[in-house]
């Protein structure tokens, strides 16, 4: 479950050791093209029904990998309970890294040999192999939480965060499976029947969330499986850029705003998610913007979600700003340089280090209060959680499954990366007088701000050593 939760919304996935394709199927449901690699014939046939393609490929062979993956690239590699089955897992990862794009992610799950059940067995003088689980008799390598992290770093990856699947209720799995075999016709139950059963669904909905909280307190002891989210470190390079705006009746400002963007980023694509009833979309399209209409209007969150993931499909970098001149377009090259040359993943442009003359006092106090709550609850020292100008590395965006329903999505798109190991820079920015009318929904925005601050509590780790204030 932790591995599936970490998938985000990638474009192209290589599911290494895909089995019957359950994990890759989860990625495919989020819009990815999924290629599986598997060597067990029976599993290949079942995986073909779930994935876009399945390759019968020996990942321990340089020649087989070069032949099978020639000309391909991926933005996510999945290794679900696979690396413990090979003699040299580091070599396998390094063999596949050339097919992972710059900044692309790797998600790995490894059984935890330091789980409490194994420790109890060792205390009793037992280390007995089984047909499945942590001591599966086909495992060639064993990992603790720390040695798994070290293995990934030695392979050349940057480990961003570590999650876990708990070893509490799961300790009774052998008893459950024995009962299942006893009542199944011929003693051969469907291997997926447990996952589809009502008791399992009730467990996932009611018990598992409690287990996750408990296991997170001592993951080295209480985890059945450690899940690692890592990436191929991004290199300093020129990135393709999309400048995005949410537009709603911006007829008075859209042409001038696009002109300002063209001056400082002539190579950028301009993307507008538009809910206007005036001529805004026609003007934007005539001037060369790509316009995605969202009619009837669904609010800021869904529009921002559409903007981010649409930009992440076609460009390496998204810089977002409002279309009302409150945020100066001349900052775009500064933000771009931070991402391209310094390896920053998110740039948060803070309006509220001091009160801007263009911002009413109640708005300023509300913004600072929300930022103080974010600092108190999450340990992120921001002074502006609602900034309307940010830069996002697209590979970071695709690593999350942001839910835009409701308002205040900028809270998630700031706190999630900051708490999950990405590099975030917060810099001050001038805030200017607005052109046109404000579309801010103050009551809805306040309610959704509190909801998102609470919902972000389980994400990642409190605080961030990589959140930099400039």
From TrEMBL:
One MF term in the entry's GO annotations: methyltransferase activity
InterPro entries: Glyco_trans_2-like, Glycosyltransferase_2, Nucleotide-diphossugar_trans, SAM-dependent_MTases_sf
Record's protein name: Methyltransferase domain-containing protein
Keywords: Methyltransferase, Transferase
Domain of life of the source: Bacteria
Organism lineage string: Bacteria, Pseudomonadati, Myxococcota, Polyangia, Polyangiales
GO biological process, one term: methylation
Name of a matching Pfam family: Methyltransf_23
Domain spans labelled Glycosyltransferase 2-like: 243-397
